[in-house]
Amino acid sequence: MSEKKTIEEYINENGSLVYTNVGISMMPLLRQGKDVFTIRKKGPERCKVGDVVLYKRPPSSYVLHRIIEVKDDSYVIMGDNCVSKEYGIKDSDIIGIMTDYSRNGKNHTVDEMGYRAYSFTVLHTIPVRRGAKLFIAKAKKAIKKIIKK
């Protein structure tokens, strides 16, 4: 019987991994259970703003999110559909970098103009998206309160 491998072990042995995401944190780019993406093993180079990286969150969660800021010794990361930033992600935490994704059977690379425009928009609308999501959440809470009365 073969032993089950971790994602890190698989990527270290094969150089890359084709996978599908679980969750909605990278919507609308990646739809849960519908789209697939390729993660290439991270080398010694530093990642850059806009890279979508797979990292391990202790103790054993894997997270695929976008780098929104590069610091001297760490990164600030956030999902495209999230409002919370994740701080202190180190190079040693990052397993790999997304190189492409497939939607409805069509493959797209991170070098394509459409993807780059999407990534630019996501990065440059963070304050607006955060404010809008927080406003909507508060509005829903207020409406529920009013309906209960």
Helix content: 25-40%
Task: Please state roughly what percent of the residues sit in beta strands, choosing from under 5%, 5-15%, 15-25%, 25-35%, 35-45% or over 45%.
Answer: 25-35%
CATH superfamily: Umud Fragment, subunit A
Main sheet summary? 8 strands, antiparallel
- CATH top level class name: Mainly Beta
User: Which radius of gyration do the C-alpha atoms yield?
Assistant: 17 Å
Order of helices and strands: HEEEEEEEEHH
Assign the CATH architecture: Ribbon
Q: Uncertain regions: pLDDT < 50 for 5+ in a row?
A: none
Mean pLDDT: 92
Structural class estimated from helices and strands: alpha+beta
Termini distance? 60 Å
In the CATH hierarchy, the third-tier topology is known as Umud Fragment, subunit A
How many domain units? 1
Contiguous helical run count = 3
What is the global morphology? globular
Query: What is the count of β-strands?
Result: 8
Question: Can you characterise this structure?
Answer:
- Helix content is 29%, strand content 33%.
- The chain has helices at 7-14, 113-124, 126-148, and strands at 16-20, 36-41, 52-57, 61-70, 75-78, 86-89, 94-103, 106-109.
- It is globular.
- The chain has 149 residues and is an alpha+beta fold.
- The protein has a single domain, classed as Umud Fragment, subunit A (Ribbon), CATH 2.10.109.
- It is built from three helices and eight strands, in the order αββββββββαα.
- Strands 1, 2, 3, 4, 5, 6, 7 and 8 form an eight-stranded antiparallel β-sheet that branches.
